[in-house]
Design brief:
The protein has about 220 residues and is an alpha/beta fold. Helix content is about 25%, strand content about 25%. The protein is built from 6 helices and 7 strands. The model is unreliable at about 1-5 (pLDDT under 50).
Length: about 220
C-alpha cells in the first residue's frame, strides 16, 4: 500500500511544525506525551547503541535517549523545517544525523542502526516502499519498534482541531492492522518480541510492537 507517490507533492510539506505540535498537544488528542513514553519503553527494551527515528518531526522523545549508551541517533523526515528544529533543540545529542527524505521514496545512503523506530508513519506513508526502507536500515540482529494508531468507533483517524493544515492529511491516512503488519514482518525475518496497547483521550488507542531480526 502506498498512500502517495514520492513523485508528487507530499502533503506533510504543507504542515508547519507549530501546527503539527499544536494538533498533537490539543485537548482530545494529547498524543505527544504517550508517543514519548512509548519510545522510552522501546529503548529500555532494546538498549541500542544506535537508533533511527523515521518521521522524527521536531524531535519529540529524543530527550529520553541515554547519551551514555546510545552514541548515534538518526532522524529522517521530509520537512526541512522539522529537521531544522530538531537540530536546534538537540544540538548536544551525541552522534545526531538528520536526513531529509520521503519515506515512501528513495532514501540517501545511511549506515544501518541497531534499532529503527517507526511511530504513526505507516498510516501516512504506507507499508510498501516505506516498510522496505525501514527494514533496510536495521543492522543484522537489530530491532524495529512500531507504533500504530488503532481504529476507534468514536474518533476519526485525523482528529478535528483548530489546526486546519492537519486536515490536508486525511485523504492519505489509512489504518494499518497490527496483525497484518506482524505477519508481513515475519516474512522478512522479524519476530514480534513484545507488544502492548495504550489508551488515549477521546477513545483512541496506540499499539506498540517491538520486533527482533532473526539471524
Amino acid at each position: 500500500m502506498e498512500c502517495y507517490s514520492s513523485g508528487l507533492m507530499n502533503p506533510w510539506i504543507q504542515v508547519p511544525l507549530a501546527d503539527y505540535e499544536g494538533h498533537m498537544s490539543a485537548d482530545g488528542v494529547e498524543q505527544l506525551a504517550p508517543l514519548r513514553e512509548l519510545f522510552a519503553a522501546a529503548l529500555a527494551h532494546t538498549q541500542p547503541e544506535s537508533v533511527a527515528v523515521l518521521g522524527v518531526a521536531g524531535g519529540n522523545g529524543l530527550d529520553v535517549i541515554s547519551r551514555e549508551r546510545t552514541r548515534r541517533v538518526v532522524g529522517i523526515d521530509i520537512h526541512p523545517e522539522y529537521l531544522q528544529a530538531t537540530a536546534a533543540r538537540y544540538a548536544e545529542l551525541p552522534g545526531l544525523e538528520l536526513h531529509q527524505a520521503d519515506l515512501a521514496g528513495d532514501l540517501p545512503r545511511i549506515t544501518p542502526v541497531e534499532q529503527v523506530h517507526v511511530a504513526l508513519v505507516f498510516e501516512h506513508a504506507g507499508t510498501g516502499r516505506c516498510l522496505q526502507n525501514a527494514l533496510s536500515l536495521i543492522a543484522p540482529g537489530g530491532w524495529m519498534s512500531v507504533v500504530l494508531q488503532l481504529p476507534s468507533s468514536s474518533e476519526q483517524g485525523v482528529s478535528q482541531t483548530p489546526f486546519a493544515s492537519l486536515q490536508t492529511l486525511k485523504p492519505n491516512f489509512r489504518f494499518v492492522e497490527a496483525a497484518a503488519l506482524t505477519r508481513e514482518l515475519a516474512l522478512h525475518g522479524m519476530r514480534l518480541d513484545e507488544e502492548w496497547r495504550v489508551d488515549l483521550p477521546a477513545g483512541k488507542a496506540f499499539w506498540q510492537g517491538i520486533f527482533r531480526q532473526m539471524t
